[in-house]
Specification:
The chain has eleven helices and 20 strands. The chain is α/β, with parallel strands linked by helices and 408 residues long. It has a domain of 78 residues: Dna Ligase, domain 1. The protein has a six-stranded mixed sheet, sandwiched between helices. Strands 7, 8, 9, 10 and 20 form a five-stranded antiparallel sheet that branches. The two termini are 34 Å apart.
Length: 408
């Protein structure tokens, strides 16, 4: 049984719900002690469409994780995604308040407040306000201005907003499963904690978390987040294409994709055969694996092209020296790195969660990037060392922490 401080992450995805429990030991090491994964019911593209089914799935995942860890989970850090997510960059400017012109924490808080004072529709709420850099008297590129001298302080921030109702429904589902919500974290930001290194963030990198219902995009440059977006397509879209194209049930199309799928048809031999179950009692047919791959490739190409379009919305698009990191369940399909290299015309690698110990074998899989990232986010917040702070959305549930103004 775990004896140190416990942290729990809950990844509520379209195809699966994962609960991960970790213990922080006396050496300040994060040890995974429990993992629970169940098929997701009641969600579509990151949005709750059936509250009762979602609550049931969350409860089952938590029970599995508790049984493995031998502990009771009372609160979680939960991920949020969905194509309702939007992001903007903003800038705030203030005059330094102290007479000796030394910048203090209060000045930093004021300039961030000024930067996030943007017009937001009534049905949307701020999820994260992430400082990118500070500018002191026209000197830019400053990560921490506290203690410096200056007259004028500016901040460039990345603001992420989401639909209020979508966030409320996620909070309500978790609470009805008997848990408290410590924080809501945008899933690509959580994943970035688990799969990206500091050097990649500095050089410039694109993170693609290709899940079941959505593809999450995050662009980093000079250590800061520059752009985020959620694309409403993922692995489930590929499964649906296979089911329609090969005239096979959805529950049979998924194993076909996982066991025989390839994202780049040029890598597959036409002589290789696979068995395709029929619909409504019709007999199983034998088809070329090349046909399956030819159905998968256009959808993967579409998803990656949409992601590239999002990346190009940012003026850092041509400066991403570390290339692309893909993670999430769909990233493990054969040919994903090769087709991504073709679309993005840069180096691509698959991101596997790191930064934890304990039951590492249970989470060393791109499918657990968000779950492990939520644990690492929780750990950094415990140390007051998070590199992004939750916004007023955290007030949607009484159990969620007030936002922590801890920068870098």
């Amino acid at each position: 049984m775990a004896s140190g401080k416990l942290l729990a992450g809950l990844d509520i995805g379209t195809t699966k719900i994962s609960a991960i429990v970790a213990e922080v030991d006396e050496c300040n090491q994060v040890n995974i002690v429990g993992v629970g994964t169940v098929p997701s019911e009641g969600l579509r593209r990151g949005i709750v469409i059936n509250l009762e089914k979602t609550v049931h799935s969350i409860s089952r995942a938590i029970e599995k994780a508790e049984r493995m860890a031998g502990v009771e989970i009372k609160s979680v850090h939960a991920g949020i995604a969905g194509d309702h997510i939007r992001s903007i960059n903003s800038r705030g400017v203030i005059a330094v308040s102290r007479k000796d012109n030394e910048i203090g924490p209060a000045d930093v808080a004021r300039v961030v407040d000024a930067a996030k004072a943007v017009a937001i529709p009534a049905d949307r709420e701020i999820i994260h306000v992430i400082p990118q850099e500070f500018i002191v008297d026209d000197q830019d590129g400053i990560k921490d201005p506290i203690g410096m001298s200056g007259i004028r302080l500016e901040a460039e921030v990345h603001i992420i907003t989401g639909a209020v109702t979508s966030a409320k429904n996620i909070c309500k589902s978790i609470e009805r499963a008997g848990l408290r919500v410590d924080d809501l974290v945008l899933e690509p930001l959580a994943s970035s904690h688990a799969v990206l290194g500091p050097d990649e963030r500095d050089l410039g990198v694109v993170l693609l978390d290709i899940g079941g219902g959505t593809t999450d995009v995050a662009v980093f440059y000079e250590g800061s987040i520059r752009h985020t977006a959620i694309i409403g397509l993922g692995g489930s879209s590929i499964t649906n294409d296979i089911a329609i194209g090969l005239r096979t049930p959805i529950d049979k199309a998924e194993p076909l994709k996982v066991e025989h799928g390839c994202a780049l048809s040029s890598m597959v031999s036409e002589d290789e055969k696979i068995s395709v179950p029929g619909v409504g009692g019709r007999p199983t047919r034998e088809l070329s694996r090349y046909v399956l791959s030819a159905m998968i490739e256009p959808r993967v190409q579409e998803i990656l092209t949409m992601a590239l379009k999002e990346v190009k919305k940012n003026h850092f698009a041509d400066l991403l020296g570390a290339g692309v990191v893909i993670t999430g369940g769909t990233s493990i399909m054969e040919g994903m790195t090769e087709i991504a290299e073709q679309v993005f015309d840069t180096q691509v690698r698959i991101g596997i969660p790191t930064g934890v110990s304990g039951l590492v074998d249970s989470v060393s899989d791109p499918r657990f990037s968000t779950g492990v990232g939520l644990i690492l986010h929780a750990f950094r917040n415990e140390d007051m060392d998070a590199d992004f702070a939750g916004g007023p959305l955290s007030k949607l549930s009484s159990g969620i922490k007030k936002f922590v103004e801890s920068f870098f």
